[in-house]
Amino acid sequence: MATPACTRSLFRSAKPFRRKTQCPCFASAPQNETKLSFRRFSTGPARSYDGVINRADRPRWSHVPEAARAPVSLHAKKDPRFVWKTNEDPELLNRVYVRILGEGGDRLLTEEVKWLAVTHKSFDQGRRGYNDRLAVLGRRIVVLQASLNLIMSPAARERAPKPAPDPHGRTPFAHPALEGLETLTSQSVLETLDRSRLGPLAVKYGLTRVLRWLPKKPDNLQGSGIDTVLTEALYAIVGAIALQGGGEKAAKIARDRILAPLGVV
């Protein structure tokens, strides 16, 4: 066991404790004013996003947002044969809306929504918005109107398959409120609103002239699915009418401008 004299000699020989000083890079400034420097990954000049404020007067559909634009394109130079050009003329777009919606159809939607309804997600990699959500709403409205008109259509009742005779001689329950219900099947609705029928209708309205999309094969539009894209654009227009004009107006557009030319109404 160490004696008190030995303990005192050990404390005298021990070196005094000194507090470590700060790093020289931080010693010159207070801690709350320290500025850290970050390594730059580009040798080019820093980009300024002040241009976004200057371009606030430009419509959203006419340009790519600056925050979504890369400083350098990673895509190789495209073959000029496969470059696809889309419409940028608002007057042509208004004329097509008049053909689809009737007189005054170019005033039923705002400028931004009119462009959004005819823009597919393949256009400009979706950076300017696309019509998927509008098409979902519009499709439900058109399917509902088609179902109601199939039930009330005498021609559809004639085309409906006749029920097979009951082997036990039973008579099915009949009621006036159930008349025409046999015409409402999933197959009949799918056949009525098939893209092979809606696609040519959209072509008749001139929708191909203003449709904004990027076909996979510009030399083969059918192989690129143009009928599907045109059908979605028709549904999106109906969905946009429902959001901005109300469900009653959208239902009337669906009956008069889509179902009537197909012979459903």
First CA to last CA: what distance?
Answer: 110 Å
Question: What is the share of helical residues?
Answer: 40-55%
The residue-averaged pLDDT reads 79
Succession of helices and strands:
HHHHHHHHHHH
Number of helical segments with 4 or more residues:
11
- Look at the helices and sheets and give the structural class: mainly alpha
Oligomer: single chain
Q: How many β-strand stretches?
A: 0
The Rg value, from CA coordinates, equals 34 Å
Strand content: under 5%
- The poorly predicted ranges are 32-39, 44-53
> What composes the largest sheet?
none
- From the spread of the alpha carbons, the general shape counts as extended
Q: Mind explaining what this structure looks like?
A:
- With about 260 residues, the protein is mostly helical.
- The protein is about 45% helix and about 0% strand.
- The chain contains 11 helices and no strands.
- The chain has helices at about 5-15, 25, 50-55, 90-100, 110-115, 130-150, 155-160, 185-190, 195-205, 225-245, 245-260.
- Helix 9 (about 195-205) packs across helix 10 and helix 10 (about 225-245) packs antiparallel against helix 11 (about 245-260).
- The model is unreliable at about 30-40 and about 45-55 (pLDDT under 50).
